[in-house]
């Protein structure tokens, strides 16, 4: 079996690391698995795994198949999926009513946590607009000497003033809700790298192609 592609977290300067720590974006630990080791494996669609904020779905609720992606906004493989693979999957499966899609955050660094906090701030109608922006402009903010400053500047395009940006990253309840998705994915599902995809409850690790995911969707469609 080929090794699972892993994204390398971006280099974060001391200033950015201190700034992230100041707003509570400490490195994430993994929650311990609780309950019986012999209990049935949970479904990835379980509401508990989506965290208290829930999933933001694209696609019709009656769709038989769901595609859930665990991703990080600093992950280059995740950005490539959203630029090259997702449009084809959406046109073929989502727009025809056969698939629902949800993106769940899985942080590789404090910058990822910050990105998903910003995406989940306020109205969920803007969730994908913000994550798309973060993926599309990834090179301009995630891999620069002062990434937190670059992220603040980028978020002006999404209507964030400096005050709202800082208030969002100081929101402890939002921080806990976003990080809970990552810790539960790691402890319950064993997710350890990005991107990780689930077609219903079938797992696909690494940068899957539109063809490979399409075959899995077709098989799940029965």
Automatic annotation (TrEMBL):
PROSITE patterns: TAT. Residues 54-218 form the Thioredoxin-like fold domain. It comes from the Bacteria. Keywords: Signal. Residues 1-31 form the signal peptide. Pfam families: Thioredoxin_4. SUPFAM superfamilies: Thioredoxin-like. The keyword Signal applies. This is Thioredoxin-like fold domain-containing protein. InterPro entries: TAT_signal, Thioredoxin-like_fold, Thioredoxin-like_sf. It comes from Methylobacterium organophilum. The keyword Signal applies.
